[in-house]
Amino acid sequence: MSRLVGNAVVAQSGGPTAVINASAAGVIQAALASGDIPHVFGAHNGILGVVEEQLFDLGQEDAAAIEGLRRTPSAALGSCRYKLKSLKDSRADYERILEVFRAHNVRYFFYIGGNDSMDTADKLGILAGETGYELRVMGIPKTIDNDLVETDHCPGYGSVVKYLAVTVMEAGRDTEALYTADTATVLETMGRNTGWIAAGTGLAQRTAEDAPHLIYVPEVPFSVEGFVADCQAVLQRLGRLFIVAAEGLTDEKGEYITTDTGAFATDAFGHRQLGGVAEFLKAIVEEKVGVKCRWNKLGTCQRNAMHFASKRDSDEAYLVGEVAVQQALQGRTGKMVTLVRESDNPYTITTGLADLAVVANGEKPLPREYMNDAGTHITERMRRYAQPLIGGEVPLEMGADGLPTYVRLKRRFIEPKTGRRSAG
Amino acid sequence: MSRLVGNAVVAQSGGPTAVINASAAGVIQAALASGDIPHVFGAHNGILGVVEEQLFDLGQEDAAAIEGLRRTPSAALGSCRYKLKSLKDSRADYERILEVFRAHNVRYFFYIGGNDSMDTADKLGILAGETGYELRVMGIPKTIDNDLVETDHCPGYGSVVKYLAVTVMEAGRDTEALYTADTATVLETMGRNTGWIAAGTGLAQRTAEDAPHLIYVPEVPFSVEGFVADCQAVLQRLGRLFIVAAEGLTDEKGEYITTDTGAFATDAFGHRQLGGVAEFLKAIVEEKVGVKCRWNKLGTCQRNAMHFASKRDSDEAYLVGEVAVQQALQGRTGKMVTLVRESDNPYTITTGLADLAVVANGEKPLPREYMNDAGTHITERMRRYAQPLIGGEVPLEMGADGLPTYVRLKRRFIEPKTGRRSAG
Question: Which is higher by pLDDT, A244 or B254?
Fold first, then answer.
């Protein structure tokens, strides 16, 4: 281990979560306490903030505000969907980032995000090495999608599952009370390519009466005929029906069963923006099953629901941030901190490290055996996996007005030193 | 006051709320403790359960389950949208109900619902009087829509506002973090004819930075041109935009700006089922304002969100149930219990009584002065009105699995005595 004294940049990327700020708090508190990192800079809006030299000094925030990040949802540093491509195609951006890092003696870079962010961090570390600039780059996993490889699960996932599970319990009781009028309900969850989130709502079903009665995930090809038969079977048994469906359902050919036709139908990464699965299934239930169907789409509400977030998830999010700093101080670079499950019950975890490049290029689908043979509900194996992740509630600080107090950072921007605002 | 000894029926009607079961608990506990009411029957699925003689004995439920109703969302007795018309048009139904009441010596009827339910209860009381059957009929207000006349507010409203306000705070932070990619967000709330619910989310805005930045209600005619200008002004100021819109927005001619085209586009009452306002506004934001827009539609999740329900709302819901029983025991009939505000700060209320017929035929719009001149956000007057209603959180009983335990009644159905199942 060689000691490296220099400043740090911490950045958040991609879709926010209820606990991404807990990871930032872990990084900031560990870095400020280290003795080797004089300044911890926040990048405003992820890697964009580095490219644009929009950095703020987190050491100038109130300590209470940093601690308050642990009960504040979304990305307090600002996030982005700015995509860097290969070193060849985005070389100007990567060089620009190193230019900014050099200007501010940044020797540590902590990037909290999903696989696109791990890719960016990885390539940045490679270029730094090539150019002889000593930089330690660590990735910190974050995604409600839970689709990163190498880690047992991703911070953010437990909280979205806890919130959606209670929501399904509650909306399920609505369908149960009003089945003579509104006989069926569809709830659409996030999950573009994987069914982890939708499957997680299966925890809401403690008895066969409970919602959800049917769960559809992208890993199981969707057929209208199968769906209609599934619905009919549940209606026969219970006289009501509550369905959870991931936004990214695909048919036997692997095509999305519905796509958004709006003016911004693809995001900056070229991902197609999905939506409309709930309305699509509602139409099938009404037209082909023949009962009235309501539909709910929680959208961005689900990934920021701090008011019912998982304490365990939040604590783990903090932990991976803290460990990233500790590992970097010990000389590690080019790694993402992982969560390694030792046991389901009692639930115990430790942390590990994975190569950024491996995480960047992988995607972890929901294992087929986590769904039943019909592909319409979760198995006991999925229950054992997901249940420990939703334990406890993050304590809120409530205002006198009956709503939580979430912090907002002061963001004391530092003086730019490079004289320009972008790459090239 | 004349003493009347006989059984009671309690029923729940219309869309469930987080606290309609608290009202049921208030009725059941007060009635069972009264000494004058030997049996308290629950009607399975509102008035339908009476017509079909589907009654269960609430005295046979565990006392803990009855108490547990206070932390259980939705309608535990079952609800319905079964609409009785005038005494002339629905006479067979009304006579059938009295037949069932006579068969089980039911002398007290407590109906928890909105104005349609108050209408049913009122007419039932009138027919009982005409036929010389001594029956005391009391209405208990319930609606998230908050549109009943004569009462300061309706149980159920405070809880939906508290939940939606925290949700707007949280999803608003998402837009704030990711504005460089997802610049705008629309959240659609319930509210077919009135803007109480949408306006309530204004409480989430503590500073001008906070969501929601724009609120649209049915009481203010919607114009696309005005909306585009409103959006542009917010974007100019903040670079991001969070919009709340009620589902029942109408244009200058009073026409809904969007309607659901599904197979079940009207409900049993002939109300058009709305939906799609969020998608409609999203399309305008993308096409005419020119920024990417996300949208969220919480649907039935919002009215059952016990996991962040208002303690004050729940306590008041219990109170109106309890007072309905006390008033009926004292000889009152044909009345709905109201909440009468004595002061905003400190918030104090008492209860009153209103004629069922008056409540049945009224609808209370959001006063225009509760919205600003532009009709795009709430005023201080609205804030003073709504803020006290969201105080405190209903304590949950959490299971070992990280989710709340909501009760389900055993429903010990009593033996039918009339030998048939419906009217006529």
Answer: A244
Out of A70-74, A263-267, B75-79, B282-286, pick the least confident: A263-267
* Residue B37: CB atoms within 10 Å: 24
Indicate yes or no: CB of A300 within 8 angstroms of CB of B300: no
Architecture field, domain A157-303+376-390: 3-Layer(aba) Sandwich (3.40)
In this complex, is the C-beta atom of B79 within 8 Å of any C-beta atom belonging to chain A? yes
Q: What is the pLDDT of residues A120-160, one digit of tens each?
A: 999 999 999 999 999 999 999 999 999 999 999 999 999 99
In chain A, which residues have their Cβ closer than 8 Å to the Cβ of B162?
402-403
A234 closest CA partner among A215, A257, A258, A260: A215
Average predicted confidence (pLDDT) for chain A: 95
- With contacts defined as CB-CB under 8 Å, which chain B residues touch A262? 282-283, 286, 293
B129-159, pLDDT tens digit by residue? 999 999 999 999 999 999 999 999 999 999 9
Nearest to B401 among A267, A301, A387 (CB): A387
| Closest-CA residue to A260 (of B293, B23, B234) | B293
Among B170, B210, B304, B401, which would you mutate to test the A interface (most chain A Cβ atoms within 10 Å of its Cβ)?
Answer: B170
A240-249: pLDDT as tens digits: 999 999 999 9
User: Could you give the ipTM of this predicted complex?
Assistant: 0.96
Helix (H) or strand (E) segment spanning residue A11:
strand A7-12
The answer to whether A7-143+308-360 and A157-303+376-390 have equal CATH topology is yes
Question: Using CB atoms, which residue from B170, B178, B295 is nearest to A307?
Answer: B170
pLDDT greater than 90 at residue A258:
no
Whether residue B363 is predicted with pLDDT greater than 90 in this model: the reply is yes
Record: fold of B157-302+376-390: Rossmann fold (3.40.50)
Q: pLDDT by residue (tens digit) across B93-129? A: 999 999 999 999 999 999 999 999 999 999 999 999 9
Q: Is A387 on the interface with B (CB under 8 A)?
A: yes
Residues with Cβ < 8 Å from B330, sequence gap 6 or more? B1
Which DSSP state fits A367?
P
CA–CA dist A183, A239 (Å, integer): 7
Q: Which CATH number fits domain B7-143+308-362: 3.40.50.12370, 3.40.718.10, 3.90.1150.10, 3.40.50.450?
A: 3.40.50.450
Residues 107-166, chain A, touching B (beta carbon < 8 A): 162, 165-166
pLDDT score of A269 more than 90 = no
With an 8 Å Cβ cutoff, are A299 and B304 in contact?
Answer: no
| A270: confidence class by pLDDT, cuts 50, 70, 90 | low
Q: Inform me whether the C-beta atom of residue A374 falls under 8 Å from chain B C-beta atoms.
A: no
pLDDT digits (tens, 9 = 90+) for B314-335: 999 999 999 999 999 999 999 9
Residues in A closer than 8 angstroms to B408, CB to CB, are 209
A79/chain B closest Cα distance in angstroms: 5
Q: What is this structure's pTM?
A: 0.96
Q: Where are the domains of chain A?
A: 7-143+308-360, 157-303+376-390
- What average pLDDT score do residues B373-395 get? 98
CATH of domain A7-143+308-360: 3.40.50.450
Give yes or no for A280 touching B (CB within 8 A). no
| Interface with B, mutate which of A80, A117, A180, A279 (most B CBs under 10 A) | A180
